[in-house]
Structure formats: C-alpha cells, structure tokens
Specification:
Low-confidence stretches: 5-35
Number of strands: 11
Strand order of the largest sheet: 1-2-3-7-8
Order of helices and strands: HEHEHEEEEHEHHEHHEHEHE
Mean pLDDT: 90
Radius of gyration: 19 Å
Strand content: 15-25%
Helix content: 40-55%
Shape: globular
Length: about 325
C-alpha cells in the first residue's frame, strides 16, 4: 500500500503541474469535441463486484487506493466548475482499475452548479419548478423542456465527457412521480423521463462509445409506469441501477417489496443492481445477511447514517 501511495502522489504532482494549462484551455472555450479523451474500449461491467459512493470533497488518492471497483462521485470537489475533476485525475483512477461514474441530477436544478444564474431567484426560467422542501437550493424542473437540456444538461454532460468519466449516475429520476402528483398523467411523465435518459445515453455514447455506462438512481417505477414502447427503450438503454435504502430505513414494507420485485426484473434482464444503505457499522452484518436471502444478485455499499456521503467507509472489510 505504501508503494501505491507513492505512485498516486507522484501522479498527482504531475496533475498539479498541468492544472493551470488545462484550466486556461477550458477558460478560452476550446471546442470540447477536439479534446482527445481515452474512453474505455471494452466494457468494465463484468469486473465490478464492489462499489462506493462519495460526493463531498473526493480525494483522488483516497479513491485510487480504496478497494472498491466502482466509484460514484461528483464531477467537482466542491460542486463548483473551478474545482471540477480533471481528465488527468480520472486517468489516475483508471490506472488503479477504477470505473468512475459521475453523479448527475437530471430532475432537479442545483443552485451551486455552474449553470445557475442569480437572476433566476426573481426571474426563473420556464423549466424551473418549486424548491425541494427537503433539500434547500434544489429545485424541481420540467425535465422534458428543451431549455433545461440546452442551458443546463448539455453543458454539464460536456464537462463530464471532457473529464473522461466512464458513465453517469442519474439522480432524481423519480421526478416523474412528482409531476404526476401535480396532476399530470403518469404515463406521460414516465415516458418523458425515459426519453431524457435515452437522450443522455445517445449524446454521451456518440462521443464516448457504446461502453459509456448509464445508471439511473431510484425511481424504479418509471419502467412500470411508462408505455410499453418506452419500457423497452429503458431496458435497452441502461446498464445498471442504483438504489438507496432498499432494505433499511424503508418507506413501508409494501414499497420495499415492490422495489424488490422490480430489482428481480432488472437482474433477470442482465442489469446490475447497486444499493447503498445509510446505517451504523453495527448493522453491517445484518445488511449482508439480508442480501444473502434475496432472490437476485446485488452489489452493496454502506455509508454513514447522516447520508452526507462525505467519506468512504470500511464496509468492504465485512464482505466475504
């Protein structure tokens, strides 16, 4: 491990020397399509047996030395464009055989992202909805609108592709249900969400290739609520799904059982299921026991109960 640490630190010194030059290229609005990114030529999916979820202040050295195969992290160390993870840093993680997905909220706009404009508080764009009462500075969006794509999503995806991430981890897919609760037809909102997931996949795979990973988080019911046409598209588009609180801190037993049934359908179709539980360490063994009793394969991870996702845990030590 000490030898690995030296290697990581050496690579990071090289990255630091290159940072100012890379930043100047971005600041001068160099055409991102001309930047060569070494995307994966073969799919890493069959090599993934563990994963970790870290969104706050990710350390490249820590992630590189971690025992986890798949890393889900933010595109930025602090949420800002100035501290975004660079192509060189992703290359370091690839050298340590990590598959790296970028967290990407597609159903809410976030005030701390580069696309946010101060004037939106008093003069919001047409796509912007109400603020999430549970997450300050996060706003529901009309995700089917073209201006949401043009102003926020496409530029964000360009940054993700430029950095060389292996895929995207799509959050707030369950926004389709929020808009249904506002009075819209659920099949329409679900269809529109699947359309967006497909559009993201097509846009990224055009540049990054067919092995670019698409992983929606939560919102499993979208493929049951959408039309048969879009259910087929959903299954053909995604590679894996991420879940939160599948077995602990559940909404209800019936909701848990429903989600478990949907997970089985996904794994039967060859999709990978990831799950993160926000639990104390004392519950790790119980978590692993519950997984053993499931009728489908699942890749687990346990994070701290506060769900801050600001540090890696030693959950890997408890797995067989």
């Amino acid at each position: 491990m000490k030898a690995n640490t030296i290697i990581v630190l050496a690579l990071l010194v090289i990255i630091s020397a290159c940072t100012s030059k890379a930043s100047s290229l971005v600041d001068s609005q160099v055409d991102k399509q001309k930047i060569k990114v070494d995307f994966r030529k073969t799919s890493p999916l069959n090599k993934i047996t563990s994963w970790a979820y870290l969104l706050q202040n990710p350390s490249v050295a820590q992630l590189a030395e971690s025992p986890y195969d798949l890393i889900v992290t933010d595109y930025s160390k602090d949420g800002s464009d100035q501290k975004r993870i660079t192509q060189s840093e992703i290359s370091v993680l690839h050298k340590f055989s990590k598959t790296v997905l970028c967290y990407f909220s597609i159903g809410e706009a976030e005030e701390y992202r580069f696309y946010w404009k101060k004037e939106w508080k008093n003069n919001p764009p047409h796509f912007l909805g109400i603020e999430n009462p549970d997450w300050a500075a996060n706003y529901k969006v009309k995700y089917w609108r073209e201006d949401w794509w043009e102003i926020c999503l496409q530029p964000y995806l360009d940054s993700i592709l430029e950095a060389g991430f292996d895929g995207v981890y799509l959050d707030i897919v369950d926004a389709y249900w929020f808009w249904h609760e506002q009075g819209m037809e659920v099949q329409n909102t679900a269809d529109d969400m699947v359309k967006l997931i497909k559009r993201i996949a097509d846009y990224c795979r055009k540049s990054a290739g067919k092995n670019f990973i698409i992983c929606p988080q939560n919102g499993l019911g979208v493929f049951e609520s959408c039309s048969p046409e879009y259910k087929d598209i959903y299954f053909k588009t995604i590679n894996m799904v991420g879940l939160e609180s599948l077995l602990f801190n559940i909404h209800s037993e019936s909701d848990r059982d429903y989600r478990l049934t949907l997970c089985k359908k996904l794994t039967d179709a060859g999709k990978i299921v990831l799950d993160v539980e926000y639990i104390d360490k004392i519950k790790y063994v119980d978590y692993l026991d519950k997984i053993e009793k499931l009728n489908f394969p699942l890749i687990p991870y346990a994070s701290a109960p506060d769900a801050a996702l600001n540090k890696l845990t030693d959950f890997y030590k408890y797995r067989k």
